[in-house]
């Protein structure tokens, strides 16, 4: 039997000719002026406020946990403190090793259980990569750029032009509520890789 319905392609090619959309990141050489108050600019991550995105400090996250009814055990606070100080994407093993290297005694199981609870509650980010899961401090939707040479990942806030989003909505029939991009690339010859040390996901 032949269906009258038009064939639905598995992939939709989107061609849009528009100016390069705004992309905000916070490498040491970015144009964003350095913050003069509050904590030091995040390492390899976003500034305190980028394109209207408010970055939570660790105290805000403690408060969020309490509001969500998550118990703030010593171990849970250690995991949160590390994620907020590193501001990168770390595997559970990275977190376990870094905390123990700092003299903070914590078991494997406790690290895994706390990461699971925090990401299930939407407090932290969890990236599923081929090499395993990586955890980050930002739970808001954001994009990433990955270095093809080192595997390092950096958070990015990409704002696509409204015309592009409308075009995508028109051809897909979806109302876009949110989006994230995963960009990959190599450092240019004139700039060494500015990204963080890659997480060793296991
Ligand atoms: Zn991220």
In short:
This protein is 28% helix and 16% strand.
Walk me through the structure.
This protein has 202 residues and is α+β, with helices and mostly antiparallel strands. The chain has one domain: Arc Repressor Mutant, subunit A, CATH 1.10.10. The chain is 28% helix and 16% strand. The protein is built from five helices and eight strands; from the N terminus they run βββααααββββαβ. β4 and β5 form a beta hairpin. α3 (92-101) packs across α4 (108-120). Mean pLDDT is 79; it is low at 26-51 and 198-202. It binds zinc ion. Residues 89, 125, 136, 138, 142, 144, 155 line the site of zinc ion.
Query: Looking at CATH, which topology would you report?
Result: Arc Repressor Mutant, subunit A
- Largest beta-sheet details: 4 strands, mixed
- Provide the gyration radius in Å: 20 Å
* Strand residue content: 15-25%
CATH superfamily: Winged helix-like DNA-binding domain superfamily/Winged helix DNA-binding domain
CATH first level: Mainly Alpha
Could you tell me how far the N terminus lies from the C terminus, measured between alpha carbons in angstroms? 48 Å
> Overall pLDDT, averaged?
79
């Amino acid at each position: 039997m032949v269906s009258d319905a038009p064939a639905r392609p598995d992939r939709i090619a989107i061609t849009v000719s528009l100016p390069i959309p705004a992309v905000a990141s916070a490498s040491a050489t970015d144009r964003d002026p350095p913050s003069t108050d509050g904590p030091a600019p995040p390492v390899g991550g976003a500034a305190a406020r980028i394109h209207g995105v408010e970055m939570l400090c660790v105290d805000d996250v403690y408060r969020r946990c309490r509001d969500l009814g998550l118990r703030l055990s010593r171990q849970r606070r250690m995991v949160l403190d590390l994620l907020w100080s590193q501001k990168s994407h770390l595997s559970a093993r990275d977190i376990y090793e870094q905390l123990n290297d700092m003299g903070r005694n914590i078991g494997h199981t406790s690290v895994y259980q706390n990461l699971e609870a925090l990401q299930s509650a939407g407090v932290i980010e969890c990236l599923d990569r081929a090499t395993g899961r990586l955890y980050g401090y930002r739970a808001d939707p954001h994009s990433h750029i990955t270095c093809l040479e080192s595997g390092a990942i950096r958070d990015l806030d990409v704002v696509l032009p409204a015309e592009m989003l409308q075009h995508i909505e028109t051809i897909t029939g979806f109302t876009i509520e949110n989006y994230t991009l995963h960009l990959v690339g190599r450092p240019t010859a004139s700039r060494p890789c500015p990204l963080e040390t890659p997480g060793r996901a296991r």
